[in-house]
Amino acid sequence: MERVTARIQPHHELRDEPCAVVCFGPSLNDTWEEVRKFKHIFSCSGSHKFLLERGIVPEFHVEVDPRAHKVGLIGPPHKDVEYLIASTCHPAVFDHLEGYRVTLWHVFDNEADGLRTLPRGEWALTGGCGVGLRAMTIARFFGFTEQHIFGMDGSSGPSGKHAAPHPSQAKSNHVTEYMGKTYDTTPAFLEAARMTFHELNMMPDVRATFYGEGLVQDMAKHYVPAPIGKGKALIGFNKPDLISAEMVELNRRLHRENLAYGVGGGKEAPTVLKLAEQLKTKSILDYGCGKGYLAKAIPFPIWEYDPAIPGKEGSPRQADLVVCADVLEHIEPDKLNLVLDDLRRCIRQVGYFVIHSGPAVKVYADGRNTHLIQKPQAWWEKKLGKFFEVGKIFQTGPELHCIVGPKQKVKASVLPDHPVEAPTTEEVKC
User: Which of 54, 72, 359, 371 is the most buried (most CB within 10 A)?
Assistant: First the structure.
Protein backbone atom coordinates (compact mmCIF):
# COMPACT_ATOMS: atom_id res chain seq x y z
CA MET A 1 0.00 0.00 0.00
CA GLU A 2 2.88 2.31 0.74
CA ARG A 3 4.21 2.18 -2.82
CA VAL A 4 0.82 2.84 -4.46
CA THR A 5 -0.14 6.46 -4.07
CA ALA A 6 -3.29 6.63 -6.23
CA ARG A 7 -6.64 5.72 -4.63
CA ILE A 8 -9.86 4.92 -6.45
CA GLN A 9 -12.37 7.80 -6.52
CA PRO A 10 -16.00 7.95 -7.60
CA HIS A 11 -17.22 9.71 -10.72
CA HIS A 12 -20.12 11.72 -9.36
CA GLU A 13 -21.73 12.44 -12.72
CA LEU A 14 -23.47 9.72 -14.69
CA ARG A 15 -21.86 9.07 -18.05
CA ASP A 16 -23.95 9.08 -21.20
CA GLU A 17 -21.77 6.50 -22.95
CA PRO A 18 -21.51 2.73 -22.54
CA CYS A 19 -18.70 0.60 -21.21
CA ALA A 20 -17.64 -3.01 -21.68
CA VAL A 21 -16.78 -5.28 -18.75
CA VAL A 22 -14.75 -8.18 -20.11
CA CYS A 23 -14.37 -11.37 -18.09
CA PHE A 24 -12.42 -14.48 -19.00
CA GLY A 25 -15.18 -17.01 -19.59
CA PRO A 26 -15.13 -19.31 -22.64
CA SER A 27 -17.76 -17.33 -24.55
CA LEU A 28 -15.19 -14.54 -24.98
CA ASN A 29 -13.73 -16.60 -27.82
CA ASP A 30 -16.94 -15.99 -29.76
CA THR A 31 -17.63 -12.38 -28.80
CA TRP A 32 -14.32 -10.54 -28.42
CA GLU A 33 -14.61 -8.77 -31.77
CA GLU A 34 -17.63 -6.90 -30.37
CA VAL A 35 -15.43 -5.45 -27.63
CA ARG A 36 -13.63 -3.31 -30.24
CA LYS A 37 -16.73 -1.12 -30.51
CA PHE A 38 -16.32 0.26 -26.99
CA LYS A 39 -14.19 3.20 -25.97
CA HIS A 40 -14.31 2.38 -22.26
CA ILE A 41 -13.26 -1.20 -21.49
CA PHE A 42 -12.73 -2.86 -18.11
CA SER A 43 -10.75 -6.11 -18.40
CA CYS A 44 -10.65 -8.70 -15.63
CA SER A 45 -8.19 -11.47 -14.87
CA GLY A 46 -6.94 -13.23 -18.04
CA SER A 47 -9.02 -11.08 -20.41
CA HIS A 48 -6.30 -8.40 -20.11
CA LYS A 49 -3.71 -10.52 -21.88
CA PHE A 50 -6.36 -12.03 -24.17
CA LEU A 51 -7.47 -8.60 -25.44
CA LEU A 52 -3.97 -7.16 -25.79
CA GLU A 53 -2.93 -10.14 -27.92
CA ARG A 54 -5.78 -9.19 -30.29
CA GLY A 55 -4.89 -5.52 -30.47
CA ILE A 56 -7.56 -4.31 -28.02
CA VAL A 57 -6.23 -2.09 -25.21
CA PRO A 58 -8.57 -1.83 -22.22
CA GLU A 59 -8.88 1.50 -20.45
CA PHE A 60 -8.97 -0.21 -17.05
CA HIS A 61 -7.97 -3.56 -15.62
CA VAL A 62 -9.47 -4.92 -12.37
CA GLU A 63 -7.88 -7.46 -10.00
CA VAL A 64 -9.05 -8.71 -6.63
CA ASP A 65 -7.73 -12.31 -6.34
CA PRO A 66 -5.07 -12.79 -3.61
CA ARG A 67 -3.16 -15.54 -5.49
CA ALA A 68 0.22 -15.00 -7.15
CA HIS A 69 -0.72 -16.75 -10.41
CA LYS A 70 -2.62 -13.62 -11.46
CA VAL A 71 0.69 -12.22 -12.70
CA GLY A 72 0.74 -14.74 -15.54
CA LEU A 73 -2.87 -14.02 -16.46
CA ILE A 74 -2.28 -10.28 -16.61
CA GLY A 75 0.67 -10.79 -18.91
CA PRO A 76 2.86 -7.87 -20.01
CA PRO A 77 1.49 -4.57 -18.62
CA HIS A 78 0.51 -1.79 -21.01
CA LYS A 79 1.29 1.87 -20.53
CA ASP A 80 -2.20 3.01 -21.55
CA VAL A 81 -4.06 0.84 -19.02
CA GLU A 82 -5.02 2.02 -15.55
CA TYR A 83 -4.69 -0.97 -13.20
CA LEU A 84 -7.37 -0.98 -10.51
CA ILE A 85 -5.82 -3.36 -8.00
CA ALA A 86 -7.45 -4.38 -4.72
CA SER A 87 -5.40 -4.29 -1.55
CA THR A 88 -6.16 -8.02 -1.23
CA CYS A 89 -3.98 -8.86 -4.24
CA HIS A 90 -0.69 -10.72 -3.88
CA PRO A 91 2.49 -8.59 -3.56
CA ALA A 92 3.75 -10.25 -6.76
CA VAL A 93 0.98 -8.42 -8.67
CA PHE A 94 2.18 -5.07 -7.37
CA ASP A 95 5.77 -6.05 -8.22
CA HIS A 96 4.65 -6.97 -11.74
CA LEU A 97 2.96 -3.59 -12.23
CA GLU A 98 5.76 -1.48 -10.78
CA GLY A 99 6.20 1.66 -12.92
CA TYR A 100 2.70 1.49 -14.42
CA ARG A 101 -0.48 3.33 -13.45
CA VAL A 102 -1.81 1.48 -10.43
CA THR A 103 -4.84 2.65 -8.45
CA LEU A 104 -5.65 1.02 -5.13
CA TRP A 105 -9.06 0.09 -3.74
CA HIS A 106 -10.32 -2.08 -0.91
CA VAL A 107 -12.74 -5.00 -0.79
CA PHE A 108 -15.91 -4.65 1.25
CA ASP A 109 -16.98 -8.23 1.99
CA ASN A 110 -19.67 -8.22 4.65
CA GLU A 111 -21.36 -6.28 7.40
CA ALA A 112 -18.38 -6.76 9.71
CA ASP A 113 -16.34 -4.67 7.29
CA GLY A 114 -18.57 -1.75 8.19
CA LEU A 115 -16.66 -1.54 11.46
CA ARG A 116 -13.36 -1.19 9.66
CA THR A 117 -11.70 2.22 9.65
CA LEU A 118 -10.14 3.34 6.38
CA PRO A 119 -7.98 6.40 5.89
CA ARG A 120 -9.85 9.43 4.60
CA GLY A 121 -10.22 9.31 0.82
CA GLU A 122 -10.03 5.53 0.50
CA TRP A 123 -12.91 3.34 -0.64
CA ALA A 124 -14.02 -0.22 0.09
CA LEU A 125 -16.34 -1.51 -2.65
CA THR A 126 -18.92 -4.27 -2.67
CA GLY A 127 -19.46 -6.55 -5.62
CA GLY A 128 -19.96 -10.19 -4.81
CA CYS A 129 -17.72 -13.16 -5.16
CA GLY A 130 -15.85 -12.66 -8.42
CA VAL A 131 -13.67 -10.12 -10.16
CA GLY A 132 -16.27 -9.61 -12.91
CA LEU A 133 -18.90 -8.54 -10.39
CA ARG A 134 -16.40 -6.22 -8.70
CA ALA A 135 -15.61 -4.72 -12.11
CA MET A 136 -19.30 -4.05 -12.70
CA THR A 137 -19.47 -2.30 -9.32
CA ILE A 138 -16.38 -0.25 -10.14
CA ALA A 139 -17.82 0.66 -13.54
CA ARG A 140 -20.91 2.02 -11.80
CA PHE A 141 -18.64 3.78 -9.26
CA PHE A 142 -17.12 5.51 -12.25
CA GLY A 143 -20.57 6.59 -13.50
CA PHE A 144 -21.30 3.95 -16.15
CA THR A 145 -24.93 2.85 -16.08
CA GLU A 146 -24.95 1.18 -19.51
CA GLN A 147 -22.72 -1.87 -19.17
CA HIS A 148 -22.01 -4.56 -21.75
CA ILE A 149 -20.77 -7.78 -20.19
CA PHE A 150 -18.52 -10.25 -22.02
CA GLY A 151 -17.21 -13.63 -20.92
CA MET A 152 -19.34 -13.85 -17.75
CA ASP A 153 -20.73 -17.33 -18.33
CA GLY A 154 -21.13 -19.25 -15.07
CA SER A 155 -20.48 -22.45 -17.03
CA SER A 156 -17.85 -24.19 -19.12
CA GLY A 157 -17.57 -24.05 -22.88
CA PRO A 158 -15.49 -25.66 -25.64
CA SER A 159 -12.29 -24.12 -24.24
CA GLY A 160 -13.06 -25.22 -20.67
CA LYS A 161 -13.79 -22.88 -17.80
CA HIS A 162 -11.96 -19.98 -19.41
CA ALA A 163 -11.33 -18.47 -22.81
CA ALA A 164 -7.66 -19.56 -22.80
CA PRO A 165 -5.34 -21.66 -20.61
CA HIS A 166 -5.56 -20.85 -16.91
CA PRO A 167 -2.95 -21.91 -14.35
CA SER A 168 -5.54 -23.01 -11.81
CA GLN A 169 -8.18 -24.36 -14.17
CA ALA A 170 -9.74 -27.36 -12.48
CA LYS A 171 -12.09 -29.73 -14.18
CA SER A 172 -15.72 -28.77 -13.93
CA ASN A 173 -17.36 -30.99 -11.38
CA HIS A 174 -21.01 -30.04 -11.33
CA VAL A 175 -23.89 -30.31 -13.76
CA THR A 176 -26.93 -28.10 -13.44
CA GLU A 177 -30.03 -27.43 -15.52
CA TYR A 178 -31.83 -24.18 -16.19
CA MET A 179 -34.91 -23.78 -18.38
CA GLY A 180 -34.40 -27.17 -19.98
CA LYS A 181 -30.69 -26.75 -20.79
CA THR A 182 -27.81 -28.55 -19.09
CA TYR A 183 -24.65 -26.72 -18.07
CA ASP A 184 -21.23 -27.99 -17.03
CA THR A 185 -20.24 -25.80 -14.12
CA THR A 186 -18.84 -25.67 -10.58
CA PRO A 187 -20.30 -24.67 -7.20
CA ALA A 188 -18.23 -21.47 -7.34
CA PHE A 189 -19.60 -20.63 -10.78
CA LEU A 190 -23.16 -21.24 -9.58
CA GLU A 191 -22.68 -18.90 -6.64
CA ALA A 192 -21.24 -16.26 -8.96
CA ALA A 193 -24.24 -16.66 -11.29
CA ARG A 194 -26.62 -16.13 -8.38
CA MET A 195 -24.66 -13.15 -7.11
CA THR A 196 -24.64 -11.52 -10.55
CA PHE A 197 -28.31 -10.65 -10.28
CA HIS A 198 -28.09 -9.80 -6.61
CA GLU A 199 -25.43 -7.23 -7.43
CA LEU A 200 -27.46 -5.85 -10.32
CA ASN A 201 -30.33 -5.29 -7.93
CA MET A 202 -27.97 -3.30 -5.74
CA MET A 203 -27.41 -1.02 -8.74
CA PRO A 204 -30.98 -0.40 -9.96
CA ASP A 205 -29.96 2.24 -12.51
CA VAL A 206 -27.52 -0.09 -14.30
CA ARG A 207 -28.62 -1.61 -17.61
CA ALA A 208 -26.54 -4.70 -18.30
CA THR A 209 -26.37 -6.55 -21.63
CA PHE A 210 -24.78 -10.00 -21.59
CA TYR A 211 -22.97 -11.36 -24.65
CA GLY A 212 -22.29 -14.96 -25.64
CA GLU A 213 -23.78 -18.26 -24.52
CA GLY A 214 -23.71 -19.66 -21.01
CA LEU A 215 -25.70 -20.09 -17.83
CA VAL A 216 -25.50 -16.44 -16.77
CA GLN A 217 -26.52 -15.22 -20.22
CA ASP A 218 -29.55 -17.52 -20.20
CA MET A 219 -30.52 -16.42 -16.69
CA ALA A 220 -30.23 -12.80 -17.80
CA LYS A 221 -32.97 -13.35 -20.40
CA HIS A 222 -35.48 -13.78 -17.55
CA TYR A 223 -34.05 -11.31 -15.08
CA VAL A 224 -36.33 -8.52 -13.83
CA PRO A 225 -34.76 -5.64 -11.89
CA ALA A 226 -36.38 -5.57 -8.49
CA PRO A 227 -36.93 -2.39 -6.49
CA ILE A 228 -34.88 -1.77 -3.38
CA GLY A 229 -36.99 -1.32 -0.31
CA LYS A 230 -36.46 -1.30 3.41
CA GLY A 231 -32.74 -1.61 2.99
CA LYS A 232 -32.86 -4.88 1.07
CA ALA A 233 -32.59 -5.72 -2.60
CA LEU A 234 -34.76 -8.42 -4.07
CA ILE A 235 -33.97 -10.66 -7.01
CA GLY A 236 -36.69 -11.20 -9.56
CA PHE A 237 -37.01 -13.24 -12.71
CA ASN A 238 -39.60 -13.08 -15.44
CA LYS A 239 -41.93 -16.01 -15.37
CA PRO A 240 -41.73 -17.15 -18.96
CA ASP A 241 -44.96 -17.42 -20.90
CA LEU A 242 -45.96 -21.07 -20.72
CA ILE A 243 -48.67 -20.59 -23.32
CA SER A 244 -49.26 -17.99 -25.99
CA ALA A 245 -52.22 -15.61 -25.81
CA GLU A 246 -53.49 -17.11 -29.07
CA MET A 247 -53.49 -20.63 -27.61
CA VAL A 248 -55.21 -19.48 -24.43
CA GLU A 249 -58.05 -18.09 -26.51
CA LEU A 250 -58.28 -21.19 -28.73
CA ASN A 251 -58.51 -23.44 -25.68
CA ARG A 252 -61.05 -21.24 -23.92
CA ARG A 253 -63.20 -21.21 -27.02
CA LEU A 254 -63.05 -25.01 -27.26
CA HIS A 255 -63.94 -25.33 -23.59
CA ARG A 256 -66.98 -23.11 -24.12
CA GLU A 257 -68.17 -24.81 -27.30
CA ASN A 258 -67.42 -28.43 -26.43
CA LEU A 259 -68.62 -29.70 -23.06
CA ALA A 260 -66.64 -32.92 -23.55
CA TYR A 261 -63.32 -31.07 -23.81
CA GLY A 262 -61.15 -31.15 -20.69
CA VAL A 263 -63.20 -33.73 -18.76
CA GLY A 264 -60.77 -36.66 -18.78
CA GLY A 265 -59.17 -36.00 -15.41
CA GLY A 266 -61.73 -38.04 -13.50
CA LYS A 267 -60.57 -41.31 -15.03
CA GLU A 268 -57.21 -40.91 -13.27
CA ALA A 269 -58.75 -40.65 -9.80
CA PRO A 270 -58.15 -44.31 -8.78
CA THR A 271 -54.48 -44.06 -9.74
CA VAL A 272 -54.04 -40.73 -8.01
CA LEU A 273 -55.66 -41.99 -4.80
CA LYS A 274 -53.40 -45.04 -4.75
CA LEU A 275 -50.30 -42.91 -5.30
CA ALA A 276 -51.40 -40.49 -2.59
CA GLU A 277 -51.83 -43.41 -0.20
CA GLN A 278 -48.39 -44.83 -1.02
CA LEU A 279 -46.67 -41.48 -0.67
CA LYS A 280 -48.70 -40.34 2.35
CA THR A 281 -48.96 -37.13 0.44
CA LYS A 282 -50.17 -33.95 2.05
CA SER A 283 -50.78 -32.02 -1.16
CA ILE A 284 -51.85 -32.71 -4.74
CA LEU A 285 -51.74 -30.39 -7.74
CA ASP A 286 -53.73 -31.03 -10.93
CA TYR A 287 -51.54 -29.28 -13.53
CA GLY A 288 -53.75 -28.58 -16.56
CA CYS A 289 -56.94 -29.42 -14.72
CA GLY A 290 -59.38 -28.61 -17.53
CA LYS A 291 -62.94 -28.60 -16.25
CA GLY A 292 -61.78 -30.02 -12.92
CA TYR A 293 -63.10 -33.58 -13.11
CA LEU A 294 -60.18 -35.00 -11.12
CA ALA A 295 -60.91 -32.70 -8.18
CA LYS A 296 -64.57 -33.72 -8.34
CA ALA A 297 -63.57 -37.39 -8.06
CA ILE A 298 -61.09 -36.96 -5.17
CA PRO A 299 -62.56 -36.95 -1.63
CA PHE A 300 -60.24 -34.20 -0.36
CA PRO A 301 -59.19 -30.79 -1.69
CA ILE A 302 -56.52 -30.55 -4.41
CA TRP A 303 -54.96 -27.53 -6.04
CA GLU A 304 -55.81 -26.84 -9.65
CA TYR A 305 -54.02 -24.96 -12.41
CA ASP A 306 -55.01 -24.34 -16.01
CA PRO A 307 -54.20 -21.16 -17.99
CA ALA A 308 -57.29 -21.66 -20.15
CA ILE A 309 -59.74 -21.81 -17.25
CA PRO A 310 -60.72 -18.44 -15.73
CA GLY A 311 -59.99 -18.43 -12.03
CA LYS A 312 -57.46 -21.25 -12.30
CA GLU A 313 -54.81 -19.52 -14.45
CA GLY A 314 -52.62 -18.23 -11.61
CA SER A 315 -49.17 -19.53 -10.76
CA PRO A 316 -49.23 -23.29 -9.98
CA ARG A 317 -48.23 -24.24 -6.43
CA GLN A 318 -45.69 -26.84 -5.39
CA ALA A 319 -47.18 -30.14 -4.22
CA ASP A 320 -46.04 -33.56 -3.04
CA LEU A 321 -47.90 -35.21 -5.93
CA VAL A 322 -48.37 -33.43 -9.25
CA VAL A 323 -50.81 -34.87 -11.79
CA CYS A 324 -50.49 -33.80 -15.40
CA ALA A 325 -52.99 -35.88 -17.36
CA ASP A 326 -53.73 -35.38 -21.06
CA VAL A 327 -51.88 -32.06 -21.06
CA LEU A 328 -48.35 -32.27 -22.44
CA GLU A 329 -49.45 -33.31 -25.92
CA HIS A 330 -51.47 -30.07 -26.09
CA ILE A 331 -48.48 -27.81 -25.35
CA GLU A 332 -47.08 -25.61 -28.09
CA PRO A 333 -43.81 -27.28 -29.18
CA ASP A 334 -41.70 -24.17 -28.56
CA LYS A 335 -43.13 -23.94 -25.02
CA LEU A 336 -42.63 -27.56 -24.00
CA ASN A 337 -39.24 -27.09 -22.28
CA LEU A 338 -40.65 -24.16 -20.31
CA VAL A 339 -43.66 -26.19 -19.17
CA LEU A 340 -41.52 -29.18 -18.17
CA ASP A 341 -39.22 -26.88 -16.24
CA ASP A 342 -42.26 -25.42 -14.47
CA LEU A 343 -43.50 -28.92 -13.65
CA ARG A 344 -40.06 -29.75 -12.25
CA ARG A 345 -40.39 -26.74 -9.98
CA CYS A 346 -43.82 -27.88 -8.78
CA ILE A 347 -43.01 -31.53 -7.98
CA ARG A 348 -41.83 -32.16 -4.41
CA GLN A 349 -42.04 -35.97 -4.46
CA VAL A 350 -43.67 -37.57 -7.48
CA GLY A 351 -45.25 -36.57 -10.75
CA TYR A 352 -47.81 -38.67 -12.57
CA PHE A 353 -48.06 -37.84 -16.28
CA VAL A 354 -50.48 -39.22 -18.85
CA ILE A 355 -49.45 -38.38 -22.41
CA HIS A 356 -51.30 -39.24 -25.61
CA SER A 357 -48.90 -40.04 -28.45
CA GLY A 358 -51.31 -39.84 -31.36
CA PRO A 359 -53.84 -37.41 -32.86
CA ALA A 360 -56.86 -36.16 -30.96
CA VAL A 361 -60.49 -36.37 -32.01
CA LYS A 362 -60.94 -32.62 -31.57
CA VAL A 363 -59.52 -29.70 -33.55
CA TYR A 364 -59.06 -26.04 -32.72
CA ALA A 365 -60.99 -23.26 -34.45
CA ASP A 366 -57.96 -22.66 -36.69
CA GLY A 367 -58.10 -26.25 -37.96
CA ARG A 368 -55.11 -27.64 -36.04
CA ASN A 369 -55.39 -30.93 -34.20
CA THR A 370 -55.52 -30.24 -30.45
CA HIS A 371 -52.60 -32.61 -29.95
CA LEU A 372 -49.88 -30.25 -31.07
CA ILE A 373 -47.16 -32.76 -30.14
CA GLN A 374 -47.51 -36.32 -31.42
CA LYS A 375 -44.42 -38.30 -30.49
CA PRO A 376 -43.69 -41.96 -29.64
CA GLN A 377 -42.69 -43.31 -26.23
CA ALA A 378 -38.93 -43.25 -26.93
CA TRP A 379 -39.08 -39.54 -27.73
CA TRP A 380 -40.98 -38.73 -24.54
CA GLU A 381 -38.66 -40.86 -22.40
CA LYS A 382 -35.65 -38.91 -23.69
CA LYS A 383 -37.38 -35.57 -23.24
CA LEU A 384 -38.63 -36.28 -19.72
CA GLY A 385 -35.23 -37.66 -18.75
CA LYS A 386 -33.70 -34.20 -19.21
CA PHE A 387 -35.92 -32.81 -16.46
CA PHE A 388 -36.82 -35.70 -14.15
CA GLU A 389 -35.82 -39.02 -12.73
CA VAL A 390 -38.06 -41.27 -14.81
CA GLY A 391 -39.55 -44.39 -13.25
CA LYS A 392 -41.89 -46.80 -14.93
CA ILE A 393 -43.50 -45.83 -18.24
CA PHE A 394 -46.01 -48.14 -19.77
CA GLN A 395 -48.27 -47.70 -22.75
CA THR A 396 -51.90 -48.57 -23.32
CA GLY A 397 -52.76 -47.95 -26.90
CA PRO A 398 -51.62 -44.41 -27.73
CA GLU A 399 -51.40 -43.34 -24.07
CA LEU A 400 -48.21 -43.24 -21.99
CA HIS A 401 -48.41 -43.42 -18.20
CA CYS A 402 -45.32 -42.02 -16.55
CA ILE A 403 -44.06 -41.86 -12.97
CA VAL A 404 -41.35 -39.22 -12.47
CA GLY A 405 -39.50 -37.60 -9.59
CA PRO A 406 -37.23 -34.61 -8.97
CA LYS A 407 -33.94 -35.06 -10.77
CA GLN A 408 -30.90 -35.67 -8.53
CA LYS A 409 -33.16 -35.90 -5.45
CA VAL A 410 -34.57 -39.38 -5.93
CA LYS A 411 -33.49 -42.44 -7.83
CA ALA A 412 -35.80 -43.97 -10.36
CA SER A 413 -35.59 -47.26 -8.47
CA VAL A 414 -37.33 -45.79 -5.43
CA LEU A 415 -40.20 -44.18 -7.34
CA PRO A 416 -43.52 -45.91 -6.77
CA ASP A 417 -44.72 -48.38 -9.34
CA HIS A 418 -47.93 -47.67 -11.16
CA PRO A 419 -50.49 -48.89 -8.61
CA VAL A 420 -53.47 -49.81 -10.78
CA GLU A 421 -54.30 -50.90 -14.25
CA ALA A 422 -54.29 -48.12 -16.78
CA PRO A 423 -57.58 -46.91 -18.19
CA THR A 424 -58.64 -48.28 -21.50
CA THR A 425 -58.09 -46.21 -24.60
CA GLU A 426 -61.84 -46.12 -25.11
CA GLU A 427 -62.05 -43.68 -22.21
CA VAL A 428 -59.57 -41.30 -23.79
CA LYS A 429 -61.33 -38.76 -25.97
CA CYS A 430 -59.27 -35.60 -25.54
Answer: 371
